[in-house]
């Protein structure tokens, strides 16, 4: 099985049963991203790409850690050799931090409001980055909205100022207000991710009733000339009830504006716990559409330096998991 098909199947399944030698340096526990607040996840690679897999003792797929990162996947009667990647903070080669673990908004697919962990202080964040600074290529920041958009943005900017001393590329993904892109650019941030989340206005309104999708579009459009084409990203969740045609329209609209879409398979969580993850077949179909749209707009995910486009653990990444 080639890497792309293997990764699509693993993403459709979402989890593995980890056995063998204890693997603490390879286990990530996160307050953000798919699997937030769960029992942790690992990053499996065969050298061609990486995939993040949540740990679930009930999973149908077994991953045996043989020691020193060497690992074997047992899936659908096949044995696939590879290795576990060591995690810096949240993911390999990055310090990806969630500043505010709680959120006043109630997006239906999100676990963060339920986790409601406290906000990290700038001192804590600086110390956390310091602890991994010698083995990361990027610092990435994300956050819930603890009080309101303006207060959160001010807090993130304060943290950004503090982290500049590391001279490591910084990516930021927060819900944007009116001038967020300008302020992050002026603060020295290299890349931003403002998430459009749902393919259509109607689905977004149903999933994120308190948020303004137009603000995200405006922020993305403002951001492209500031950060450059291909250095502005936007998550689009696949599996919220959109058709492939609707997903394609949204992907193309983002690409045409110079924004790289991140096609995030739904991780059934929050109020959507009983929903299904998208199938491997659908992920592969959309991967082709995604790759073509990027190509048509002259966008290269390979030049991204931070956050999910650089990591690719949770998504099929055209230009990363397979050439464009
Ligand atoms: S793709 Fe994004 S959310 Fe997933 S592990 Fe990587 S950085 Fe985290």
Per CATH, the class of the largest domain reads Alpha Beta
Anisotropy-based shape: globular
Distance between the termini: 20 Å
Structural class designation: alpha/beta
Largest sheet: 7 strands, mixed
Overall pLDDT confidence: 94
Lateral strand order in the biggest sheet: 7-8-9-10-11-12-13
CATH topological fold name of the largest domain: TIM Barrel
Helical coverage, percent range: 25-40%
Under the CATH scheme, the architecture of the largest domain is Alpha-Beta Barrel
Number of helices: 10
Number of strands: 13
Give the radius of gyration: 18 Å
Question: What is the strand content?
Answer: 15-25%
Unreliable stretches (pLDDT < 50, length at least 5) are none
User: In the CATH hierarchy, what is the superfamily of the largest domain?
Assistant: Aldolase class I
* Count of the domains: 2
What ligand molecules are bound, each kind once? iron/sulfur cluster
Helix and strand sequence: HEEEEEEEEHHEHEHEHHEHEHH
Structural features, described:
By secondary structure, the chain is α/β, with parallel strands linked by helices. The protein folds into 2 domains: 3-84, no CATH class; 92-311, TIM Barrel (Alpha-Beta Barrel), CATH 3.20.20. 32% of the residues lie in helices and 21% in strands. It has 10 helices and 13 strands. The protein has helices at residues 3-13, 112-115, 122-132, 149-163, 180-186, 201-207, 213-227, 244-256, 280-296, 307-311; strands at residues 15-20, 41-45, 50-55, 62-67, 70-75, 78-84, 90-91, 94-98, 138-142, 170-173, 191-193, 232-238, 260-265. The strands form 2 sheets. The chain has a 7-stranded mixed sheet. Strands 1-3-2-6-5-4 form a 6-stranded mixed beta barrel. Helix 8 (244-256) links the parallel strand 12 (232-238) and strand 13. Helix 1 crosses helix 9 (280-296) and helix 3 packs across helix 4. The protein is globular and about 50 Å long. The two termini are 20 Å apart. The model has no long low-confidence stretch (mean pLDDT 94).
């Amino acid at each position: 099985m080639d890497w792309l098909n293997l990764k699509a199947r693993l993403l459709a399944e979402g989890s593995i049963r980890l056995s063998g030698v204890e693997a603490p340096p390879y286990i990530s526990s996160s307050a953000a991203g798919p699997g937030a607040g769960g029992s942790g996840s690992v990053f499996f690679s065969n050298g061609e790409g990486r995939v993040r897999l949540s740990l679930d003792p009930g999973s149908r797929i077994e991953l045996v850690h043989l020691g020193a990162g060497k690992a074997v996947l047992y899936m659908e009667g096949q044995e696939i050799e590879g290795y576990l990647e060591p995690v810096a903070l949240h993911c390999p080669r990055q310090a990806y931090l969630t500043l505010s673990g709680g959120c006043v908004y109630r997006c239906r697919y999100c676990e963060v409001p339920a986790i409601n962990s406290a906000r990290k202080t700038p001192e804590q964040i600086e110390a956390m980055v310091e602890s991994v600074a010698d083995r990361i290529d990027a610092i990435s920041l994300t956050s819930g909205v603890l009080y309101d958009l303006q207060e959160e943005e001010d807090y993130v900017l304060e943290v950004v100022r503090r982290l500049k001393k590391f001279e490591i590329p910084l990516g930021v993904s927060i819900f944007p207000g009116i001038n967020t892109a300008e302020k992050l650019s002026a603060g020295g941030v290299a890349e931003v991710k403002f998430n459009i989340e749902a393919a259509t206005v109607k689905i977004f309104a149903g999933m994120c009733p308190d948020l303004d999708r137009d603000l995200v579009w405006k922020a993305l459009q403002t951001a492209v000339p500031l950060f450059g084409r291909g250095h502005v990203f936007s998550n689009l969740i696949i599996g919220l009830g959109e058709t492939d045609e609707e997903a394609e329209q949204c992907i193309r609209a983002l690409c045409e504006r110079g924004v790289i879409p991140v096609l995030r398979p739904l991780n059934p969580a929050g109020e959507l716990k009983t929903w299904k993850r998208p199938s491997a077949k659908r992920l592969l179909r959309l991967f082709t559409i995604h790759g073509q749209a990027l190509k048509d707009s002259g966008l290269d995910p390979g030049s991204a330096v931070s956050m999910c486009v650089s990591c690719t653990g949770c998504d099929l990444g055209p230009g990363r998991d397979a050439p464009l």
